[in-house]
Each structure stands twice: as structure tokens, then as C-alpha cells.
Design a protein that fits this description.
Layout lengths: L15 H11 L3 H8 L16 H7 L28 H13 L14 H7 L5 H27 L12 H7 L22 H5 L4 E2 L3 E3 L5 E4 L3 H11 L12 E5 L5 H8 L4 E6 L2 H8 L7 H4 L7 E6 L2 H11 L3 E6 L6 H15 E9 L8 H17 L2 E9 L23 E9 L2
Parallel strand pairs: 4-5, 4-7, 5-6, 7-8
Antiparallel strand pairs: 1-2, 2-3, 8-10, 9-10
Helix pairs in contact: 1-3, 2-4, 3-4, 3-5, 4-6, 5-6, 6-7, 6-15, 9-10, 13-14
The structure holds S-adenosylmethionine.
The site of S-adenosylmethionine has 27 residues, from strand 3, helix 10, strand 5 and helix 13.
GO molecular function: protein arginine N5-methyltransferase activity
Function: S-adenosyl-L-methionine-dependent protein-arginine N-methyltransferase that methylates the delta-nitrogen atom of arginine residues to form N5-methylarginine (type IV) in target proteins. Monomethylates ribosomal protein L12.
Keywords: Cytoplasm, Methyltransferase, Nucleus, S-adenosyl-L-methionine, Transferase
Length: 431
């Protein structure tokens, strides 16, 4: 075959060390595996053909009763075979724990674009405990990243060598909050991170059912209306107040204005919107906008309706200084990573939220991959607790949205939501 398009990729042959480790992992042979895992790097070797790491191998070897298997791969070493034995899930758990303790990377991808956690979830109920171990490892990695971030901010001159297991930490670092889940980059996927500065300088495309950035990333989409509705209802449980007695509301990120229209319909006493993108601000200021200067002048006596033009990072210090306090705060930006959300609820919410107030945010971190979503949901809960807040989660079903490029996803570069349930956070101060 002369046509280069038909040239088969040449795979590096698997080396004996990798083969041995994968075999012991798939046999859940802890005694044989342990001494090998003392050597740095051995916990995260990968089969060049399948992309399996020892974690994948240990999990794949657990078929459930319905026969949901993962095309179990058996590594032969000197005639030994790893199949035929009944799987003891407790042994599998011990192996997975040992692998994590030895630096195994929780979100390495195999050639099917699955992390070990994705595989454990797909194999069914029998491997749920293994899935949990993957989530816990992801949470530990991300919490470590948070600590390292703080350390680096204090002393950025001292660059340490990357330790085993830190690659997973790096992958989490690129996770973007809101409506672009970068997360774990899939094999062959074009890497194009969204970042705040580029987004805010980009041209936007306003359509009836979505708002897109210049790269056709979904900034906001109409399918999220139900999530916005539930968020408003849970943030403001007492909506039937007399005019002028409504709540004091702060919303960060206008987008399509879906949540702000709902907030406005509750007849708030104060309604502050912070928006940074010039094109969104232009729409907001238009004569036919529901939030033009006419709206700003319509606040009830003693209240205030205002659009703050600029980034929340630049606007909030002044708002704090002015002494404004809110009953409900909602945060939903675009192109910002988890550290921005964390900065918001750690540095600003404590000073801006009334002691009996409620704070919510769009929980879209890692929502293109269940295991990442579960990791981020737990990380957020831990960090919120450190910031003095308690979270109540409400599960909101997300109806089938159609496949990549179908229905509302038509024209959107990447389907950022693939899960059937949205976990809606409502936070309040710990008693
Ligand atoms: C996902 S949309 C918000 C959608 C909104 N919840 C709705 O119901 O339509 C995110 C919005 O945040 C804005 N944004 C992004 N970064 C921001 C920042 N640092 N400060 C203020 N607004 C920002 C974007 O321009 C965009 O309008």
C-alpha cells in the first residue's frame, strides 16, 4: 500500500516489565505486584496497543454477572495466563488501592478514551467500589493541586521535580468551570483550551437557542433553562413578597439572560448583574433590552438595579467596600477554571452574602465525563466547607440532548455536557 493514508501505525512492542505488571494487576496478585511498584513509574506503565495501565488492567479483569466485560486483555508471561479464575472484588480493591498509593494516575486514558474510572463505571454495579476508589484518588489529586497552587504562589522560585502521580494533577488543572469542560483530553481530539482573556476579546455569535464564542464553543445554551429555573427556586424559596420587599440579588455572568429574567420576575429589591464581555454588554444596553438604563431606573425605593460592566475580579472589591449585602448570589461565567470559582466563594462570598443568604453556581465542571464530574463535585464541597459553607445538592434530570452535533448541539464545537443528571448546589453558611 503506497497511499500514506492507509499506512498502519507501527506500535512499539510491549516490554517485559510492562507485560509483567499488567499481568499481575489483571490477576489481582498483590504479592507479586508490590515489589515491582517500588520502582518509580511502574504504577503507571501503559500497554502500547490498548493503552491499558495497571489500573485499567485490574478493573477490566472484573466482569459483572451480566457479562459486561471490557474485552478483557490477558498478558501472557512465560506461558502464564491470567484468565479462568473467579474474580474476588476485594482483591481487586486491594490492588487498586496499592496502585494509587504507588503513584498510579487516576485519569490516564486508554485507546478507547476511557480513564480507569470510566471503565469501572461501564462495567456495572460490581465494579462500583472500584469506581469510588478512582473518584477518591481524583479528589486527593485535585486537593493536592490546590495546596501546591498556594505553595507556588508563596514561593514560585523553587521548582521541584514532578513526582509520580502528579500528571493527573496537571490534567485537572485545565478543567474549566461553567460551560467548557476541558478535563481529560481524548486521543486525537484537537487541543484548544478556552481561556478567559481570549474569550473576552472574541467575537460572539448570538442565536435563538445558544450563545457561541468565536471557536463555536457553547457559552450558554437554552437546554439549561430548567437548571436556571430550579436554581432560582432554590435560591429564593420565599418569592411572593410585596413590591419593594423582594430579595437582594447578585448575578455574575449574564450570558443569554435566562437566569436574570427569572430573577427580575421575582421583583427583587436589589438586582446587580456583573458582565465582562463587550458584545453581551452591548446587547444589555440596547433600547429593546430588558436590562437597559430604563430597567436600572426602575428599582424600588431603597433598592438598586445595576449592570456592572467589567470582570467580577475587578468589580467585587468595590462592591465589598460599598457594604452591599445579598440574599442570593449566583455565579456562572465562561472560560474560567475551578480556581476562579474557588477564589470567588472563598474571597468574596463571605463578605457579600447575608448571614441567612444562599449562594449557587453553575456546576458544569468535568461534565463531559462522569468520573471528572464526581471528582469536581466533591472537591467543590470540601473547598466550600473550608470557606465556611454547607452545600445541599439537588439532582436535576437532564433530558436526552441528542448526540454530538445533533439538535441543540448542531454548530457547537464540543458537547460539553454528556450526563443525565445535573447536581445543583445551594450553599449557605455553616451554622
Ligand atoms: C454561561 S454564561 C451565563 C449564562 C446565564 N446564567 C444565563 O442564564 O443566561 C457566562 C457569562 O459570563 C460572562 N463572563 C465570563 N467571564 C466573566 C468575568 N470574569 N466577569 C464577568 N462576567 C464574565 C460571559 O461573558 C457570559 O456572558
Amino acid at each position: 500500500m503506497d497511499d500514506p493514508a492507509f499506512t498502519l501505525p507501527t506500535l512499539n512492542p510491549i516490554d517485559e516489565n510492562t507485560q509483567t505488571i499488567l499481568l499481575h494487576a489483571s490477576q489481582h496478585n498483590l504479592a507479586a505486584l508490590k515489589p515491582l511498584l517500588r520502582i518509580p513509574g511502574n504504577a503507571s506503565v501503559q500497554d502500547p496497543e490498548t493503552g491499558f495501565t495497571p489500573l485499567h488492567a485490574a478493573i477490566a479483569a472484573c466482569e459483572d454477572e451480566e457479562g459486561n466485560s471490557s474485552e478483557v486483555v490477558v498478558w501472557e508471561v512465560g506461558g502464564e495466563k491470567g484468565d479462568g479464575e473467579k474474580v474476588d472484588i476485594e482483591k481487586a480493591k486491594d490492588v487498586v488501592r496499592e496502585l494509587f498509593m504507588s503513584g498510579a494516575i487516576w485519569n490516564d486514558l486508554d485507546v478507547r478514551n476511557e480513564t480507569p474510572g470510566c471503565l469501572a463505571w461501564r462495567l456495572g454495579t460490581k465494579t462500583r467500589d472500584l469506581y469510588e476508589l478512582c473518584v477518591e484518588a481524583g479528589v486527593r489529586a485535585e486537593m493536592l493541586l490546590g495546596i501546591m497552587g498556594r505553595y507556588e504562589a508563596l514561593d514560585s522560585g523553587d521548582e521541584e521535580d514532578e513526582e509520580e502521580g502528579e500528571a493527573d494533577v496537571d490534567a485537572m488543572e485545565s478543567e474549566t468551570n461553567g460551560h467548557t469542560a476541558e478535563g481529560v483530553e481524548g486521543e486525537g481530539e484537537e487541543k484548544k483550551d478556552v481561556n478567559s482573556a481570549d474569550y473576552l476579546a472574541s467575537t460572539l455569535k448570538f442565536e435563538d437557542d445558544k450563545l457561541l464564542d468565536a471557536d463555536a464553543n457553547g457559552v450558554m445554551m437554552a437546554w439549561e433553562t430548567n437548571i436556571m429555573r430550579r436554581s432560582v427556586d432554590l435560591l429564593l424559596p420565599n418569592q411572593n413578597q410585596q413590591a419593594g420587599e423582594g430579595a437582594r440579588i447578585l448575578n455574575i455572568g449574564f450570558g443569554m439572560g435566562i437566569i436574570d429574567r427569572m430573577f427580575a420576575a421575582t421583583k427583587p429589591r436589589s438586582h446587580h448583574i456583573i458582565e465582562a464581555h463587550p458584545a453581551v454588554l452591548e446587547k444589555l444596553a440596547a433600547a429593546d433590552s430588558d436590562f437597559s438604563s430604563a430597567w436600572e431606573s426602575s428599582a424600588p425605593p431603597g433598592g438598586k438595579y445595576v449592570v456592572h460592566k467589567g470582570r467580577w475580579q475587578d468589580t467585587l472589591p468595590g462592591l465589598l467596600e460599598s457594604g452591599e449585602v445579598f440574599d442570593a448570589i449566583y455565579f456562572d461565567t465562561f472560560g474560567e477554571d475551578y480556581s476562579a470559582l474557588k477564589e470567588f466563594f472563598s474571597e468574596f462570598v463571605p463578605g457579600l452574602l447575608d448571614e441567612n443568604g444562599r449562594f449557587g453556581f453553575f456546576n458544569g465542571l468535568g461534565a463531559d465525563r462522569r468520573v471528572c464530574y464526581d471528582v469536581y463535585t466533591r472537591v467543590a464541597e470540601l473547598d466550600l466547607s473550608e470557606a465556611g459553607m454547607d452545600v445541599e445538592w439537588t439532582d436535576v434530570p437532564v433530558e436526552e440532548l441528542g448526540g454530538e452535533g445533533e439538535g441543540e448541539w448542531k454548530g457547537v464545537r464540543r458537547r460539553y455536557w454528556t450526563l443525565d443528571t445535573y447536581r445543583l448546589p445551594i450553599c449557605s453558611f455553616l451554622a
